[in-house]
Amino acid sequence: MDLTVWVARTLSRNGRVFLADVLRGNEKLADAVNHLLVVGFYLVNLGFVALYLQDDATIATSRQVFEALSTKLGVVLLVLGLMHLGNVFALNKFRRRGMMDREQTPPVLPQGYTQPVAAGPAQA
Questions:
Q1: Residue 26 in contact with residue 20, Cβ under 8 Å?
Q2: Rounded to whole angstroms, how far apart are CA atoms 18 and 66?
Q3: 100 pLDDT exceeds 60?
Q4: Is the pLDDT of residue 87 over 60?
Q5: What are phi and psi of 86, to 5 degrees?
Q6: CA-CA distance, 24 to 21, in Å (whole number)?
Q7: What is the 8-class DSSP label of residue 115?
């Protein structure tokens, strides 16, 4: 449980800056998305742990207890790590798309325009 809380706080604290950049500096939206991601992390983590840690095998020795626990905990950590990488990949994709949109808009409004030239008869 302590590991879940530590990871969630670390992701929240360090992910906020990244989210603010992805969301073009909208701090309120970054905080809201960050909070939703933390809540989702808790729900998925605790739900997955609750479902995955149940075991019907008979455990006779203390060695088997540690082996079963380490296997279960290792799988939980790997799945959560993969989910985190998927989230970072998706947010990075949004960030790149936003950066491309910002680069396509001119920094200053145009000062004027040029009249189109009317097409005349073909010259020989």
A1: yes
A2: 38
A3: yes
A4: yes
A5: -65, -40
A6: 5
A7: P
DSSP state of 65: H
The dihedral through the CA atoms of 70, 76, 82, 88 has a sign that is negative
Q: Over the stretch 9-54, which tens digit does the pLDDT of each residue have?
A: 888 888 888 788 877 778 898 888 888 888 888 888 888 888 877 7
Contacts of 22 (CB under 8 A, 6+ apart): 30, 91, 92, 94, 95, 98
State how far Cα 30 lies from the chain centre. Answer: 12
Burial of 70 (0-12, 13-18, 19+ CB in 10 A): exposed
* Predicted pLDDT at 84: 79
The pTM of this model reads 0.59
DSSP result, 31-55: HHHHHHHHHHHHHHHHHHHHHHS--
Structural contact between residues 52 and 75, judged by C-beta atoms closer than 8 angstroms: yes
